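Practice problem: predict the structure.
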Amino acid sequence: MDPLPELSALAIDPERPLLIVDVDEVLGLFFSGFGRFLASRGYELRLERYALFQNIYAPGASEHLDLESGRALFNDFFRVACDEIELAPGAVESLSALARDATIVALTNAPDHARAPRQRWMDRHGLAYPLLLNAGLKGPAVAQIAERTTGRVAFVDDLLVNLESVAEAAPAVRRFQMNADPRLFALAPSVPDKHPNFGDWALLRPAVAEALGFGSA
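Answer:
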């Protein structure tokens, strides 16, 4: 999914610092919400590894659900329940503070049918920032967004693969890994020397502010 058509209508100050931020496990607790949804459908989410579909089980099963069925449940979640996830602690307050000095854009990998409920969720919780939908690695999308400003740019995501993709496609962008769910923070592959790793917005917020060039926020 190419975000460029959406970008053409997006107002980004060409001189202001820019923060590009993921939604799931950064602004909202996706896995907790997805786990509740799966339980309502008669399945279990077992966080045994840092994966998605390979953690979905029928009750009492020793083998995870097949990937096709897991993807169908994932799509259903984004159709009917993605606007019910809980906020990541400190996310709203941190973005509000950072927004005083930076433009903020949310970049999420989600099905197209999730656009409206995800935007409603953000607006309802005081996260009224532009939302762009992406598919696949985020490096190319972040590079396109970053081209819209001469100011400093930072990117926050939960997945190492996306951070590595941005490092390749837009090496000047400062990268931070964030997993707000402590269970995922313990499991997530990370390379802290390249992408500083956080599980708490209270610590991430000043690091992002410094990277964007305005000290503390």
